[in-house]
Amino acid sequence: MLLRITALVFAALLPRGAQGETPPMTDEKSCCTATSSRATLFAAATLTGDVASANEVKGAAKEALGASAETWPAKPWLDRMVWIPAGEFWMGSDEPEFGDARPWHRVYMDGFWMDKTEVTNEQFEKFVQATGYITIAERKPTKEEFPTAPEESLVAGSVVFTPPNEAVPLDDYFRWWGYLKGANWRHPTGPASDLKDKEKHPVVHIAYGDALAYCKWAGKRLPTEAEFEFAARGGLEREPYVWGSNEFKPAGKWMANTFQGHFPDKNTGEDSFVGTAPVGSFPLNGYGLYDMAGNVWEWCSDWYRPDYYQTLADAGGVARNPQGPVDSVDPSEPGAKKRVHKGGSYLCTDQYCKRYMPGGRGKGEPDTGTNHVGFRTVITQSERGKEPGASGQSGR
Ligand SMILES: [Ca+2]
Ligand SMILES: [Ca+2]
């Protein structure tokens, strides 16, 4: 919070280009991990949402993996969710740029249910209509939160990617990230934008607390980082992509919504999407999940520390259902407390950070959503019963 307050004063709420002073940059590539904070800047057709759809997914997952069809728990199944069977996997990455994802370490996960897709705008709308919830981006920042910010700067908004008009050095993400008054989940790229024809796009500008509020309403929770990566890998071991292949475009096919062209100034949208895509626009992974790579980053419940994997590896043996460290440290922004993001987004590119790879890690301060961060939910069998309509027909 202290850093948030300090940095906000200089940059966050001022117009782009008038920041005056920016936080120290590091060599860490932050294009698609987003600026981590407000502070520093101040299906598709298959989504029928019924059990028949779950059967389709089950079949697809079986086909993809050659796995047993009997790995799902007894019915009732959960609407719009797929079962991730218990198992062990190698977690991490040896990508040279992913220093915080080393070393590979062995992890055991209990089975759990996971949303087949990112939470969509129409799902979030149901939550808001039912509860009257107002997201953090829609709330006016208070003098108590930012005591040294000028009153005129205290306006509701969020962090939005705005491509520069020309190629720029990649050493300062302020060149493409800015705090925009009036940006929020209903207005993803600012007040003039809306959700028309975006009902099945992932909801964005979701801060960690917003995601928790949705989870509470739905009777679910956010995945741990290990749950997310285990599910993203789809039963495959130490593969570079969630679809397994060493090829980014196997047989010439786009497998995830990422960034093509020249980052950050020219997104050519060769995969058909310059921004978010309707959930489920790209192929399923081995467990029948969509968009576990790309489209939008997704909140996990773990605190972020770059040394957490080393801590687990040093402990030896197999980590069982790891819940993340007890606190957060991010050397690139000392003092900021961050939660983990996973999966990468439509802004991830091999020219810069390629964190659509399943071992990649992102992070962000809990009060900060951007227009490429969303979430999905999970629940274990033993946790079931909390969700409304536990028979699986809630439609949430
Ligand atoms: Ca794209
Ligand atoms: Ca995603």
How much β-strand is present in the residues? 5-15%
Low-confidence stretches: 1-27, 40-52, 390-396
The topology string of helices and strands comes to HHHEEEEHEEHHEEEHEEEEE
CATH uppermost class: Alpha Beta
Number of helices: 7
The oligomeric state of the chains shown is: single chain
Total separate domains: 1
Spatially, the strands of the biggest sheet line up as 12-11-9-13
Corresponding CATH superfamily: paralog of FGE (formylglycine-generating enzyme)
User: Helicity, in percent?
Assistant: 10-25%
Which class do the helix and strand fractions yield?
alpha+beta
Mean pLDDT: 85
- Overall geometry: globular
Biggest sheet descriptor: 4 strands, mixed
What is the name of the CATH architecture?
Alpha-Beta Complex
CATH fold topology: paralog of FGE (formylglycine-generating enzyme)
Distinct ligands: calcium ion
Q: What is the terminal separation in angstroms?
A: 33 Å
Q: What integer value in Å does the Rg equal? A: 20 Å
DSSP summary, beta strand count:
14
Ordered list of secondary-structure elements with their pairings:
Blueprint: H1 2-12, H2 38-41, H3 51-65, E1 81-84, E2 87-91, E3 105-109, E4 112-115, H4 121-131, E5 157-161, E6 177-181, H5 208-218, H6 225-233, E7 261-262, E8 266-267, E9 297-303, H7 308-315, E10 319-320, E11 339-342, E12 362-364, E13 373-374, E14 378-379
Parallel strand pairs: 3-10, 9-13
Antiparallel strand pairs: 1-4, 2-3, 4-14, 5-6, 7-8, 9-11, 11-12
The site of one calcium ion has 7 residues, from loops.
